[in-house]
Write a structure and sequence with these properties.
single chain, about 700 residues, alpha+beta, Aldehyde Oxidoreductase, domain 4, 7-stranded mixed sheet, 6-stranded mixed sheet, 17 helices, globular, oxidoreductase activity, Xanthine dehydrogenase YagR molybdenum-binding subunit, AldOxase/xan_DH_Mopterin-bd_sf, iron ion binding
């Protein structure tokens, strides 16, 4: 790292530290969301209604083009060959048989690949999304078993796959670390996540735990989890002169285009990446080796390339969730109130990336205790780089925490729901911030009544013939995030007697209904029917950078749409001029309603968008604006919660497990689309059941 880079990071750290201290002290009215939006008082009835996804019909008809369905003229098809050792060098590659195979256009290895920069690794800058601090096909080094080491292009996919199987590779293996015991023996280091230490210390948790009259001290282990989306990763790429077009499956459209530009030494506007549809992502649909290799092969062959990973290829190239080894120790008094809460343990990373599983995140704001110790340490193995996977930290960390709480409930003889309610915090236990809202206690009480929790047997188990029937419960939690960088462009265009709106955001759609919620928010803000709003997204040519990750994209889009709509109102008032009923009003004094602008104080003073555009002799008007900085995340502790209840049957003869009932009671703020929200809740439950029963 250069002296300049070090100075820049130090300066950024000072600014971040100052903001962290000052923003919590600011009045609520200075913070985004601190003052209710005045347009909330003029509801148009769209927010919270069940709306079918706007892209649903396209997908059902097969009209939604995914990354591997785009076509270019004279296209070639790629197949990868993967390393079969964990660490070492390529001693030799015999490509003769592959090059002579039918239909083969090119065999690319580190010996003939174009020279490329190492993709900037995720976290090194706001636009960097490289998977690891490693060059791709630039040398003979092997860093993990499964690393792509050659690419074959052919006229058909079958020809490429066959030719790749004919490659003969000789290795010079070197000592590697592929076991947890070996990783531990090599040394343990502190864990960092998103540049922040994974450590919280309040009081003396170990001493308080030792002195507590009631306690549990357990170790929980979770295995590595691999991403397995319905749509395997793929990209279709073409060079036109010195410009690169990529049709990809990406959760980070703008950032990925920028990282590809950096890798190939291009100006930002020389890379165009589109990703309108993503068939499952959950953190995995980012930049991996295959897109870089596909672009390099297309450049070398001077022909477009489609590179689609096989299911094996996904497992070899795309990172997942690393294994964890967690200790949860809770000390409580006779009433069940926690005196000490300890959640520590080990995660694993590669030598080339910094993405440990941050399993303490869900514990940080979950329960009150005067003494808290939360810590993640890291060991390193020679393996595929880790990456984000749904609910990084929470998915495996809350499993351990909630299991320990259940065990403590048995130790104390206290109902596990009641034990959780007795340890509800009145402010964030680790940073002291007030909660923006917290209704998990209500969720627990409502859910328990609906589930019939209090009618369960004393030990939560009963027998029905061959079946043992038990019930259990757990808290779910996930924080509110809103990343900076989001922009929206709103264009109103005259259409007959009215107008249509085009709302453009550089967002991604993974199946969660992003375009639909964006249309709902925009229609509500503009006072237009939903069918008069079109959404453009999934294209790096659109301003701004919005990542579909951390469950923050909808909040980021909403803030950007609000900002763009506010700017658009200002422009419309200027266009309206002095001959309008709106003359003399400021943007703060008007609202959007029924296809136009109206005075908030006097609804009779209004003019339609079409009228404003017509009188100003304009066919359209457009405004682009970035959302406000996400200062609310420094001012409040913000989380969604769920109270989860489950009834499970286990056959005492066959061991068969059946989940006969499951109820989730959710506390998650304002619902934008009731239909897709319900789908998200159910999908989360199903994913959790799959993890518990099959992973």
């Amino acid at each position: 790292m250069s002296i300049i880079d070090s100075a820049k990071q130090a300066a950024q750290g000072l600014v971040q530290g100052a903001m962290t201290k000052l923003v919590p002290l600011a009045p609520d009215s200075w913070i985004p969301g601190g003052v209710p939006d005045p347009l909330i008082a003029r509801k148009h009835g769209l927010i919270g209604k069940p709306v079918s996804r706007l892209d649903g019909a396209l997908k059902v008809r097969g009209d939604a083009a995914f990354a591997a369905e785009h076509r270019f003229a004279d296209m070639t098809y790629a197949a990868l060959a993967y390393a079969t050792i964990a660490r070492g060098r390529i001693a030799a590659i015999d490509t003769a048989a592959a090059e002579a195979a039918p239909g083969v256009v090119l065999v690319m290895t580190h010996l003939n690949a174009p020279r490329m920069a190492t993709p900037p690794v995720f976290g090194s800058s706001p636009s960097a999304v490289g998977p690891a601090d490693l060059s791709i096909l630039q040398d003979d080094r092997i860093h993990w078993n499964g690393q792509p080491i050659a690419c074959v292009l052919a006229e058909t996919q079958e020809q490429a796959d066959h030719a790749a199987s004919l490659l003969r590779i000789t290795y010079g293996a070197e000592p590697s670390t592929t076991t947890l015991a070996g990783a531990k023996a090599n040394g343990i280091e502190p864990g960092l996540f998103m540049g922040q230490p994974l450590l919280n210390e309040i009081g003396d948790a170990e001493a308080a735990f030792a002195a507590a009259p009631h306690k549990v001290d357990r170790t929980y282990r979770t295995p590595r989890h691999n991403h397995n989306p319905i749509e395997p990763h793929a990209a279709t790429l073409a060079w036109v002169g010195d410009e690169l077009t990529i049709h990809d499956a990406s959760q980070m459209v703008t950032q990925q285009a920028q990282t590809m530009a950096d890798t190939f030494g291009l100006a930002t506007d020389k890379v165009r990446l589109t990703s309108p549809y993503v068939g499952g992502g959950f953190g995995s649909k980012g930049l991996w080796d295959h897109q870089v290799i596909g672009a390099a092969a297309a450049k070398l062959a001077r022909r477009p390339v489609r590179i689609a990973l096989s299911r094996e290829g996904v497992y070899r190239v795309v990172g997942g969730r690393t294994l964890t080894e967690q200790r949860v120790a809770i000390g409580a008094d006779a009433d069940g109130r926690f005196q000490a809460l300890i959640h520590t343990g080990l995660s694993v990373m590669t030598p080339q990336n910094s993405m440990p599983e941050p399993f303490i995140l869900g514990t940080q704001a979950a329960y009150a205790a005067p003494n808290i110790l939360l810590k993640v340490e890291v060991a390193r193995m020679n393996m595929l780089a880790n990456t984000f996977m749904r609910a990084p930290g929470e998915a495996v960390g809350t499993f351990a925490l909630e299991s320990a709480i259940d065990e403590l409930a048995v130790e104390l003889g206290i109902d596990p729901v009641e034990l959780r309610l007795r340890n509800e915090p009145d402010k964030d236990p680790t940073n002291g911030l007030p909660f923006s809202s917290r209704h998990i206690a209500q969720a627990w009480r409502d859910g328990a009544e609906r589930f019939g929790w209090h009618a369960r047997p004393p030990r939560s188990t009963r027998r029905e013939g061959e079946w043992l029937v038990g019930v259990g419960c757990a808290t779910g939690t996930y924080p509110y995030y809103r990343m900076p960088g989001a922009e929206a462009r709103i264009t109103l265009t005259r259409d007959g007697d009215g107008v249509k709106a085009l709302v453009e955001v550089a967002a991604a759609e993974m199946g969660m209904g992003t375009s639909t919620t964006t249309a709902i928010v925009a229609a509500e803000r503009l006072g237009l029917p939903l069918d008069r709003v079109e959404v453009g997204y999934g294209d790096s040519a659109i301003p701004g950078a919005i990542m579909a990750g951390g469950s923050q994209q909808t909040a980021a889009i909403g803030a950007a749409v609000i900002a763009a709509q506010t700017a658009l109102v200002g422009d419309l008032i200027k266009l309206a001029g002095n001959d309008s009923p709106l003359a003399g009003l400021s943007p703060d004094e008007v609202g959007c309603d029924d296809g136009g602008l109206g005075s908030l104080a006097d609804p009779t003073r209004r003019e339609s968008y079409a009228s404003i555009l017509g009188r100003s002799q304009r066919d359209s008007v457009s405004a682009t604006k970035a959302g406000s900085l996400p200062l609310e995340t420094m001012h409040w502790s913000m989380h969604s919660h769920s109270a989860l209840f489950c009834e499970v049957r286990v056959n005492t003869v066959t061991g068969e497990t059946r989940v006969s009932r499951f109820l989730g009671s959710f506390d998650c703020g304002r619902i934008l689309n009731l239909k897709t929200a319900r789908s998200q809740f159910r999908g989360g439950i199903i994913m959790g059941l799959g993890m518990a029963l099959m992973e």
